[in-house]
Each structure stands twice: as C-alpha cells, then as structure tokens.
Design brief:
Elements (H helix, E strand, L loop, with lengths): L11 H20 L4 H6 L4 H30 L4 H9 L3 H31 L3 H17 L2 H39 L7 H12 L2 H4 L10 H26 L12 H9 L2 H38 L5 H16 L7 H34 L9
C-alpha cells in the first residue's frame, strides 16, 4: 500500500472540496470543455432528455466517487495501482492496460482541442496550441502534488466564474431562443444509456485523483467529498448545455460548439476569456491524468530504490507521455476520437472498476474493519 499519510491540520477546503475540484479537473477536458462531448452524448435525446441524462450521470458520479474515496481510505490506497491491488488482486493489471489506452486517447484529444482553440481564438497554427498545452502539463506535473493541487484550486475558481458569466450573457443575448429550444417537440429516447455511458468513461477521474485524498481525516470526509464531487463536476456542464439549446438542433453538428456559441454572443473580449478558460481546463485535465501516472511510478520507485522520485524524473516521464500521446492528434480528428474511442473505454471501466467496486468493494466496506495504517 501507499505510504503517503494524510496531513494533520487539513483545511475543510482540502478535505471536502479539493477532491471534487480535482475530479472535475480530470474529466472536464475530455468531458465537456469544448461542448463536443455534450453534443455527442446528450443532444440526441433532445433538450429535456439530455438534461435527464446529465442528472443521471451526476448521481452516478457522486455515488461511485463516495464509494471510491471510502474504499481508498479504508485500504490506505493513494494511487490507482494500490487501489486496484486492494480491489482486484492480481487483476489490477487489467485496469493498468485500460488506463494506458485512456491516457493515449484523452491526451490526443486534448492536444487536438488545444490546437483548434489556438487557431480559432488567435489564428495560430494548430501545432502551436498543442505544444503550449504540452509545456504547461509537463511543468505542473513535474513539480508534484503541491503544484497540481494549486492548479486544481485556482483554475476551478476561473472556470466557475466564467461559466456563471457565460450564463448571464447567454440569457441576456438569446434567452428567448433557449426557451424556444426547450419547447421544441423532440424524441427523448436513449437518455439513460447516454447518461450511463458518459458517466462510465468519466468516472475514472475518481480513482485518478486519489493522491489528493491525503488530506482526509475520517470516513465522513471521504463520503461527503465523494457526494459533493458529482455536482461540482456537472454544474458547469449543465449550464453550457442549457445555453446550447438556443441553437438546437443544428449546434449538434459543430466540431467546437463552444466557439459557435461565443460567436453568436458577439463579445470578442469574453470570447477570448472563455477560450482561455477552456485551455486552462484542458491543462488541469491533462495534468491530473499525467500526475496519476507519476504517482504510480513514484510508488514503485520508492519501493524498489528506497528514495523519492525527484522533480526531474517526474518531468521526464511527463514529457515522454505527452510526446507519445499527443502525436496521435495529428492523425485523427477531434470528433472521431470522441465518438469512436470513448464509448469502448466506458464499457472497459464499467467492467474492471465500477462493477467490482459496487459489488466486492461495497461488501468489504459493509463487513467493516479499521482503516489501513496509512489512512489513520
């Protein structure tokens, strides 16, 4: 098990909100920052069906995150490999393989999205945005837990503020169209499948952000933080989806629905601010995913060599991952990556993570027992 003990004197923010902010940080880049994912999974069910699917996904996130955090605390797991060693035994390697595929896919998506944003906002060649994102992820991941947690914190403040302002401007600019969109008769079939699929491939964020659980001091902290994580992650997505309905159904065909909506607002300053926020969201999502790998390697390094993995080693690992994964973005389009890759991964993680956790994991929690020494 991981030997990282929780800190004493942890603040309520670190115990209850930081895990939710970290969870949001990991999923937003691949979950809804560009709006493409919302168009893919929820718009086909219409305005009201889409909202129902999003609420269902939010509830799944909360329940699974709370169970994940509690199981991690009870077993002393502070990285995904320790977690799955405790949950699956030797079967932990199945998740490791799935996570590697997930990492390649999402970092490729992030690279493509950053390139598209740089081109749309500043007219830069796509490779410029991709390289800027790679540099940012490598820097933050290279400095370890403290730098990553600060990134999650301050980007979250930026994100929630920008989404709130976006809602105000959208209601003022085309609020009547939003009301009209929700009044359009539309088939709502498939909302449950869309919500479960979307929740399935994103819920991996709950186990990726285990390093930030080091601040928790009780089982209550784990449960409350998990239940709060769902709404913290989904509220910005719901705000954006509601605004998208102003241009339903044609917005479903846009590669970057966010850019389409910002063009309709006709506010160049806010347009740049929103694009900066999306880039920041991609930065924190990519950093969270790479940081999870660094923590997993740091644990193995500590066990085998008896020393901590330094910042230089973390930086080298981050750069190697980014170069490998983001080069994929040059060969495939953003929409194709999301439509073809995410659905398959959703079923993989449901099979090796959610189902074992909610059956075997819940049974072990129900049997009780004191937390592992690392969690006390």
């Amino acid at each position: 098990m991981s030997q990282v003990a929780p800190r004493t004197g942890s603040s309520w923010f670190q115990r209850f909100l930081l895990p939710g902010f970290a969870f949001k940080a990991v999923i937003i880049g691949g979950g809804y920052a560009t709006g493409r994912e919302l168009a893919e999974f929820f718009l086909p069910s219409g305005p009201w069906g889409g909202l129902a699917g999003m609420v269902l996904a939010m509830l799944v996130w909360s329940v699974v995150a709370a169970t994940t955090f509690l199981f991690a605390r009870r077993t002393g797991a502070r990285d995904y490999s320790s977690f799955f060693e405790a949950l699956l035994g030797r079967g932990w390697v199945v998740f490791e393989l799935g996570y590697f595929l997930f990492l390649v896919l999402i970092l490729a998506v992030f690279g493509a999205a950053a390139g598209a944003i740089g081109h749309a906002a500043l007219g830069l060649p796509p490779i410029a945005g991709t390289l800027a994102l790679m540099a940012g992820i490598a820097i933050f991941a290279g400095y370890g837990n403290t730098a990553v947690e600060q990134l999650f914190k301050y980007v979250s403040f930026l994100l929630y503020g920008v989404y709130a302002l976006f809602l105000v401007l959208a209601l003022a600019g085309f609020g009547d169209r939003i009301a009209t969109g929700f009044a359009i008769p539309a088939v709502s079939d498939g909302w449950a499948l869309g919500g479960l699929t979307y929740a399935g491939y994103n819920i991996i964020g709950a186990v990726v952000i285990l390093p930030v659980l080091r601040h928790m001091t009780s089982d209550r902290d784990a449960v409350v933080a998990g239940l709060v994580a769902g709404p913290l992650a989904m509220i910005p997505a719901i705000i954006f989806f509601v605004c998208m309905i102003a241009f339903y159904p044609q917005i479903g065909a846009e590669v970057l629905p966010s850019d389409y909506l910002l063009t309709q607002l006709g506010n160049p300053v806010f347009h740049l601010l929103f694009q900066l926020m999306i880039f920041s969201a991609l930065l924190e999502s990519g950093t969270g995913a790479v940081h999870a790998v660094n923590e997993r390697i740091a644990k193995a390094w500590r066990v085998r060599r008896g020393t901590a993995l330094g910042n230089g080693g973390r930086l080298v690992i981050a750069i190697a991952l980014l170069v490998l994964c983001m080069l994929v973005a040059d060969r495939f389009g953003l929409v194709t990556l999301i439509a073809k890759g995410y659905r398959a991964l959703a079923y993989v993680f449901l099979a090796v993570y959610v189902l074992p956790l909610m059956t075997l994991g819940v049974f072990r929690l129900w049997r009780g027992g004191n937390p592992a020494p690392e969690a006390q």
